[in-house]
Write a structure and sequence with these properties.
The chain contains six helices and twelve strands. By secondary structure, the protein is an alpha+beta fold. The chain has two domains: about 210 residues, BirA Bifunctional Protein, domain 2 (2-Layer Sandwich), CATH 3.30.930.10; about 45 residues, SH3 type barrels (Roll). The strands form two sheets. It has a seven-stranded mixed beta sheet with strand order 1-2-3-7-6-5-4, sandwiched between helices. Strands 11-10-9-8-12 form a five-stranded antiparallel beta sheet.
Length: about 270
């Protein structure tokens, strides 16, 4: 299948902005870092950095991110949203929704779930992670880099032993090799109208039904590992600002801004 190069991706794009400037590299330390450096030099919104290898790539909470070279998708997208900085955390959820929609278009036979705040899973195993990083520069204002790592064609034996039981890929799930260029273009085509709609709204309200339809946590008992400690309760979806709604054991409803969710076993 084709490598996600400009020659292979551009013919598949219907976007007006996202991905129209695409940098494809065999190896960079981190696509997020390169995109941020280019942003600080005035790179335009929509810049896309794709790399086959990124030795210092990271996930949320500064965890390392494994990606098998030339089999998966690791890329970063530069955005310059004209919104209050308090809304920036919503972008990760918006990107997760757009990626979920794009995978439904490419591999409709797979039932893929969304796990707050921004993971995609198949049968409980992780397919994708998303890391958003933002900064404000004196010259160019607010910039947001959306970094995505998606396991596309990685076979089980290519994962490190510690990840084989909790990670999967589209190829493992579908039994077929997938076209990375098509998936990348489909994501950009899905994400651009979502992003433009979101810019005109005041929150994620319009996207909540789509999130709930694929929400792995909804109605489940979860324990959240948050900066303030462990919190347990029943997940009740997400709020319009992207926080997790959690029904506590005493019946109170609280909103959680960040944390890792661990599901209780099904009865």
């Amino acid at each position: 299948m084709s490598a996600p190069t400009p020659d292979n991706v551009f013919p598949l794009l219907s976007t007006s902005m996202l991905g129209r400037q695409l940098i494809y590299e065999q190896s960079v330390p981190s696509t997020n870092r390169l995109a941020a450096e280019l942003a600080e030099r005035g790179a335009p919104e929509g810049l896309l950095v794709v790399a086959e290898r990124q030795p210092t790539g990271r996930g949320r909470q500064d965890r390392s991110w494994f990606s098998a070279p030339e089999q998966n998708l690791t890329f970063s997208l530069l955005l310059r949203p004209t919104v209050p900085s308090a809304r920036i955390p919503e972008i990760a959820l918006l990107a997760a929704l757009a990626l979920h929609s794009s995978l439904k278009a490419v591999v409709p036979e797979l039932v893929i779930s969304l796990k707050w705040p921004n993971d995609l899973l198949f049968e409980g195993k992780k397919l994708c992670g998303i890391l958003c990083e933002s900064a404000i520069t004196p010259e160019y204002g607010l910039q947001v880099v959306v970094g995505i790592g998606l396991n596309v064609n990685c076979p089980r034996q290519a994962f490190p032993p510690e990840l084989q039981l909790r990670s999967t890929s589209l190829r493992m799930a579908s039994g077929e090799e997938q076209d990375r260029s098509r998936i990348l273009a489909e994501f950009l085509n899905q994400f651009e109208p979502c992003y433009q709609h979101w810019l005109q709204d005041r929150d994620l309200g319009a996207f909540l039904p789509a999130w709930q339809a694929a929400d792995l946590l909804y109605g489940r008992n979860v324990t959240l590992d948050t900066p303030a400690g462990l919190v347990s309760g029943q997940a009740q979806g997400i709020s319009p600002d992207g926080r997790l709604r959690l029904r506590l054991p005493d019946g109170r409803l609280t909103l959680v801004s960040c944390g890792d969710a661990h599901l209780a076993p099904l009865d």
